[in-house]
Amino acid sequence: MVSLAGRALRRAEHLSQRLLLCGSVLACGLATSLPAQSAAPRVALVLDQQAPRLQPQIAAFQREIQGFFRPGEITLLPPLAGDGTPAGVWRVLDRALRDSSVSIVVTLGPIGSHLVARASSGDKPAIAATIVDASWQGIPAKDGTSGVRNLAYVDESYAVSGTIAEFHRLIPFRRMAILLDPGLLRAIPPLETNARDLVRSTGADAVVVPAKGTADQILAALPAGIDAVYLTVLPALSEPETARLIAGLNARRLPILSHMADDVSQGALASYEPPEHWLRRARRVAVDLQRILAGEDAGTLPVRLVGAPRLTLNLATARAIGFSPGYSVLTEAELVRTDSLGPADTLSLAEAMRGAIAANLDLKSADLAVESGAQNVRLSRSSLLPDIESRFGGTVTREKTAAASLGQQPERQLDGGLSFSMPLYSEQAWAGYGSERRLQQGREAQREQARLDVALDAARAYINVLQARTLADVRRSNLYRTRSNLETARVREGVGSTSRADLFRWQGEVANARRDVIAAESQVQVATLELRRVLDRPLDRPLAQRPVALGDPALLAQDSTVLTWFGEPARYAVLTRFLVGEALRVSPELARADAVIAAQERQLTAAGRAFWMPTISLQGGLSNVFSRDGAGSSAPTLPGGVTLGTGPDLRWQFRAEASLPLFTGFRRSARRAQAGIDLDQLKVERARAAQGVEQRVRAALETAASSYAAIALTREAAEAASRNYELVSDAYARGTASITALIDAQDAAESSAEGAANAVHDFLLDLMRVERAMGDFGVLRSAEQQQAFLQRLHTLEEQQ
Hints:
Elements: H1 2-38, E1 42-47, H2 55-67, E2 75-76, E3 80-81, H3 86-98, E4 104-107, H4 110-118, E5 126-128, H5 134-137, E6 151-153, H6 160-170, E7 175-180, H7 182-187, H8 190-200, E8 205-210, H9 215-221, E9 228-231, H10 239-251, E10 256-258, H11 262-265, E11 270-271, H12 277-293, E12 312-314, H13 315-320, H14 327-332, E13 334-336, E14 345-347, H15 349-359, H16 361-382, E15 387-396, H17 399-403, E16 412-425, H18 427-494, H19 500-535, E17 543-545, H20 569-586, H21 588-609, E18 615-629, E19 637-638, E20 642-643, E21 650-659, H22 667-734, H23 739-774, H24 783-799
Parallel strand pairs: 1-2, 1-3, 1-4, 4-5, 5-6, 7-8, 7-9, 9-10, 10-11, 12-13, 14-17
Antiparallel strand pairs: 11-12, 15-16, 16-18, 18-21, 19-20
Helix pairs in contact: 2-12, 3-4, 9-10, 15-18, 16-18, 18-19, 18-21, 18-23, 20-22, 20-24, 21-22, 22-23
């Protein structure tokens, strides 16, 4: 019995030890597996080679992908780079595919993308992000997907064949040299033949040049007889060498079509790379990553990224090589270095406002009116100063008449004299002088009104140009979207998922969008002409504007922190009271009214004094006979020896006089009464003007506050409309949305984009109207005046 119990006890102990051991092993396994399951998936980026000139695109690609995920949701590993050869790229790619810590591999170069897409199905998801042309490269495709397990790729977002055909229509070349990376040619052998066929389809000939070595070596390798060059991405060529290559091609007057739009700013003639080429590709990769991590097979994801080419044109290069693009090309293309039309004047908003004040013809006319008014003041003052008149003359009299004049009128006589008159006191003259001085102050205030109006006109014209350019950019973007949708319709029509009706509809939409772009560009020119007129610049001279932001120093108070007050009710009320007070203090309209009232008050005073204040004046004169000759020049002697006198030759006299009308038929009473009534009328008009000034300031502030709030709202609406358009566009590409829904979404996105783009401009223009209503522009104040303005504002805030 004891032995049986002992054996049972020992078996229980063994069993418990085994269970404990199994539990320990299971616990250790869970402890090691949980961190691995909770770690963020690691995404490896594989580059063909290190290419400094492509770093901005790679960085943008990384930022865009990371923006689709929450922090810590994925780990984007530093890019792995090959050596630019198929074997070197494969070594790096294979290492990433075999690395168990890597969850997904993304290839960003065309060589790596080709290699991973041509490889057999692997155990690890891979995304080939840069496929040149899937049909050329023999990459598997099935119903718009790769059809290969764990393989997704992004086919070229716009057709290279279409861009070459467009370039041939732009410049009818006969033989084109295609510069291709040697490593890419080795990795994709059909590339050379297909590239030649593309050019031949336009009716021209082509020669493929492996671009290896330096810029000079590439230039030396170019065959004779070529008249155009297609510059593809050459990652082995540094930025300076690329610039030298482009300069060398331009020196030979060869038009360059570049695959990269960035090369146009370096001097290449044109590029058809879409503006969002890399970003759209990055977004597609980010969406693919999300779907793969959510459990979808990469082989079932769409591979076609439909886009449309967009022309970027360098006008300086066009001029250098002797190419003159047509008006439709100029209005539709993205223009680079427009200074080829001549040296452009580049102005800021503040410079435009100051320049208008210095040069505007309307203001010069107002200045002359003030100068003319100053002469009126001098004329009125002349009534208070003496009038002195001189005379000198000679008289010839008939001899018999002179002889009979008894010496009073000689036959020949020279004489002269001076006479003067001056008011010792004239109330009417003093009133006229005082009134005219006040009226001159009114003319100066009127000139200040014109000065402020010209400054506002300059600001309005400046911002109108920016708004017109923004509208043109929005119209151009809409054209690009419409062309992208046309390409989508072509793809859908090619696979039979839609009818040709969609194709015709989009062709009509493209024509309408082109018309809108031309009209918008025309408005840019019209707005620029108005700005030149306001600035009194030659109407045919190029003029460039700097963008205006909310922090521009030309704004209210030249202190952008004041703008935040528009969004704070309490501080907005303080700002309103302050600006109303400033307006009532400095408004030129009120200054002019005050000057007219002061002039009328002086007239009323004179009308009252006319009853008892005499006019006192002094007159006098001096005359002399310088010579007498001929008959009658001496007095005759009468019988008895008496000689008649002729009087002294030198004579003078003075007269003082005081006059006071005793009765004028009640004219003085009527004038005094009328002057009083006119003064009362002017005071009423001044009160009405003050009311109008306050109303304009408050109304302008309300409008500005509304447009300030609209900035954030329009941006939010534009982002929502853009996201909606992307969703509907993707749905249309998949055949789940109608063309009507897509057009509605595109129209909404265009309208919202226009509103968001011009929201800041609208607010700035409203802000300029606030300053004009206030009667003072911050940009026109001196530093001391500006400091005093801000001090008064903050003092009022502290007192509240």
